[in-house]
Amino acid sequence: MTNISEIAQLGAKVLRLKAQVVADVRSAEILQVIEIMQDTLATTQGVGIAAPQIGVSKRIIIIASRPTARYPSAPLMTPTVMINPAFQALSDNKEKGWEGCLSIPGIRALVPRYKEILIHYTDQQGSLMEARLEEFVARIFQHEFDHLDGKVYLDRVEDNRDIFAESEYLKHSLSV
């Protein structure tokens, strides 16, 4: 049976809270939260989701890059559950790229993000994991990680003129 949650929308208090550290990654509660996140993400055109987006203030994200209508050139990867994630930039190089969010439908913006990062997280079996992420997948991670600290991508925009209605973004991206 699938458990699909409503996605919290901008203005929901849970999106502005600092999410709580997960103490027992294999608890029934956490396993259920992860299942709901997976099922919910699978019903969207999104490439990632954070627990606060399903109303749960816990430090869990799923990165699931795949080509979709929203991100046609996204690389394909196996969806990865990351519990209590952390990261460090591998250089000061940032690049602006287009982002959207399931919690902020109809809007896209150019957001500066680190191009290369080293991430650490706990997987569903309780193992500590480390990986190097670059480009689009690094962008997804940083976007979802922000949700765990009560931030949304619009908080990172440097110039309000970098915020577009999705319809205008589509016109712009087709003309480039």
Question: Which labels suit this protein?
Answer:
single chain; 176 residues; alpha+beta; Peptide Deformylase; five-stranded antiparallel sheet; three-stranded antiparallel sheet
Explain the overall architecture.
By secondary structure, this protein is of the alpha+beta class. The protein has one domain: Peptide deformylase (Peptide Deformylase), CATH 3.90.45.10. Helix content is 22%, strand content 30%. It has 3 helices and 8 strands, in the order H-E-E-E-E-E-E-E-H-E-H. The protein has helices at 28-42, 135-148, 166-175; strands at 48-50, 60-63, 80-89, 94-101, 104-114, 116-122, 128-134, 163-165. A 5-stranded antiparallel beta sheet has the order 1-2-3-6-7. A 3-stranded antiparallel beta sheet has the order 4-5-8. The longest helix is centred in the first third of the chain and has 15 residues, at 28-42. The radius of gyration is 16 Å and the shape is globular. 32% of the residues are buried.
